Amino acid sequence: MSLHSEILEQPTCLERLLVSQxxxxxxxxxxxxxxxxxxxxxxxxxxxxxxxxxxNYLWGAMNSLPMALATPSLFTYYHQPPRLKQALVxxxxxxxxxxxxxxxxxxxxxxxxxxxAITNTPCSPLAEVxxxxxxxxxxxxxxxxxxxxxxxxxxxxxxxxxxxxxKADRWKELAQVAGWVNAVLELDETISQAAQRxxxxxxxxxxxxxxxxxxxxxxxxxxxxxxxxxxEPYSSADFQHGPVAMVAKGFPVLAIAPRGYVxxxxxxxLAYLKDELLAELVIIADNPEALDMAQVPxxxxxxxxxxxxxxxxxxxxxxxxxxxxLAKGYDPDKPRSISKVTETR
Amino acid sequence: MSLHSEILEQPTCLERLLVSQxxxxxxxxxxxxxxxxxxxxxxxxxxxxxxxxxxNYLWGAMNSLPMALATPSLFTYYHQPPRLKQALVxxxxxxxxxxxxxxxxxxxxxxxxxxxAITNTPCSPLAEVxxxxxxxxxxxxxxxxxxxxxxxxxxxxxxxxxxxxxKADRWKELAQVAGWVNAVLELDETISQAAQRxxxxxxxxxxxxxxxxxxxxxxxxxxxxxxxxxxEPYSSADFQHGPVAMVAKGFPVLAIAPRGYVxxxxxxxLAYLKDELLAELVIIADNPEALDMAQVPxxxxxxxxxxxxxxxxxxxxxxxxxxxxLAKGYDPDKPRSISKVTETR
Lengths: 345, 345
Hints:
Chain A is α/β, with parallel strands linked by helices. Helices cover 48% and strands 15% of the residues of chain A.
């Protein structure tokens, strides 16, 4: 069962990446000369795009670096790419194969910008075109639904942030991530039982905010890929600007609500969903305020620094998605209609 | 019935905005000194955020201006906003009330950037904080679900693009938009009948690409707000990176596929959805290739320049959403749980 074993492999992958690539990351950051960069311009699809959402928040908050998410069709179909003056152009792709992501880096290079590939395939076309390559070293990922390459991409992004900040403390915090993930993996059996309740769920929303906006998107994507549930992700703020109208009594809302700057805002919307709209809540959190509100609470270790919670909080979401797939009678290693490498233009 | 009458009002609103604000738009663009700007930094929520998606593609393709979509929580909760050097900071909001959008402009101003508010409420807090205000002049919008302010925001964005380009042809094309929208409104009765078929639809996806990526998001939002259908929007490329797994026989896929650079890519995915996955298709288009594939084709006038198709193609989507709301027995003027002005931080 490759999906399940790849989920379990994550602590090993994260530790390996941190130890073996720290020097490379620091060299890349030094070589890029960040003082000349006004913004990051990032291209990615699917799971890697969700990793990009983490970079958007993390680099914005920790490194003051604004980010523009690329619109690949302007490069591939319209042939009218924007000017990228003073941009750091980044592509994230497990396979390094998708022509649209490659075309963004090719254009970035043509315009004279520094280009960086974050990939699990350092001999790929994407890596070949980039000035700098960060190999996430997750090892072959056989399952169609990405898990260990997602957390490895997050780790790569967090390492780049630590290197840009120049703060030694950040690296010490990063060294604890593998242990926290290990602790979450012990919930495997508990989550397997909890997932049974959603055997007949057909749709849901997934809420996260700030750093865990990315987690909401990735949890929703795993559910769509594996369980075929129409799971739509939102920031808790965007959700209130219209989509909350969907929620009737019993409507399932999945949420990620660890301690941190945005917890108060998450607690407020969760309380409204529970008390006023009578929604069903599945909540990943490290604090009793959020966990006590859930029909199904999924707890992660306490005292994780907020910026690293996405690397840990996605793991119970992966296990939940995996076990729900089995509960629904689908094959987690053979999702219908999709394949490991998707080449889009 | 205010929602329906506001949909019908759109040609008048668009014409008024174009005629009365052209000079203001040209003055704003001149005053901003675009040569000093490396990227646009845009904050918006809900319907206005979808208008922002149009700006992302249009200004990128037509005006070479890259865009970063703001992450408001970095401003409101984290208090760690990114540096915005050489950015044009823009807020789009019908009401001009939402504190998160205001805080992005306040910070942009603090950092010394030019700031622009696009709003229907020129006496709002958002307008007060901005250096430049573009009043979309749509008149009071009473329905909770935004329609005429959406197309007016698109028009404002298109006018800014025309002014930045300095090309007279663009203004001539803009002058035809109201007429095209008028032509689509004649389909009101046809669309009312077509919507009956989806009385029991509970979930769907909405596909668009390039300029009409925004249309897919806005159609999905109207469906969620009014009909409570779990409607998830995608670019056709993102959709293939995982979510397509949801599609089983009869799964409803709504799509916008007018002529233009991305039509071939849309036709390819639509043919796959129809022939291989046996999906149900509702398609808004101006060409027989796309329309012939649909169980329910919704046609818009031919020969609309691609960059202006979003201003026209959303109109049948609005009518579809409105009539489906009635078919499902809901009140289009009183969607549950949401109100006209949503104030989030």
